[in-house]
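Researcher: Next sequence.
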Amino acid sequence: MPDDLQQEGYHFHVMRRAIELIDGMGEQASLEQLASEMGMSPAHFQRVFSRWAGVSPKRFQQYLTLGHAKALLTDRFTTLETAHATGLSGSGRLHDLFLRWEAMSPGDYAKGGAGLTIYWGWFESPFGPALVMGTRKGLCGIGFASESGEEAAFEDLLSRWPKADFVEDPMFLRPWVLSAFGVQQEGEVPLYLIGSPLQIKVWEALMRIPSGQVTTYSELAGSIGKPKAVRAVGTAVGRNPISFLIPCHRALRKSGGLGGYHWGLPVKRAILAWESARAEG
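Model: Next structure:
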């Protein structure tokens, strides 16, 4: 595992604790107070923040607050129609990452993964331990285990394709993972979408939301021609198997609430904060 990716995992564990502290102490907590609670010197704490977030702790605190989602809906809301016109290669795309994807046919999806070989491996990521899965056609799963634990995350993704053959092979996945998390640019990242026709429509819509921006569940429903199916669309968002790259974390409630997140709300908040810092830093 590259040292940079191991460091990202360490940084996330610090950030996860920092979120808890900021929630308890308020966004006005000083650098010295936070560093003391973390058992670090202020200088080291500042370095960790800046390395992970790209901005200083003081500036970053605003992105970690519980009200940040509401501010995003006011300042960084995007309609899917506008996003589609802009295209995925716009300046808001993380790391200038180029994604290409294809979807499994509905008939093959109905087989539950029968005849499909899925390779898997554990990696550190900017958002904690990540279980990554992929076929010869591309990545089909990314799950984060910092909240649920590794065993539960593993069983979760395995259950998506119960009849597939699973083979542990992190080295096969490694180039895609390095590009996906921006550690090294190893070329494009292919995605293989394994889901129902409705789910795939929703996931494709999610990929049109630029990094650092958000949309709402109702906007997603309207964008795929099903404005009254907000609940079904929300379920499809929650069933997204390729976290981060299919950015379900960018879907919020109209009220400004975070909504749900399959891998835990602290992870969703951390990803949104991380992207906001890069978009505005």
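Model: Residues 3-25 form the longest helix (23 residues). The longest strand covers residues 117-123.
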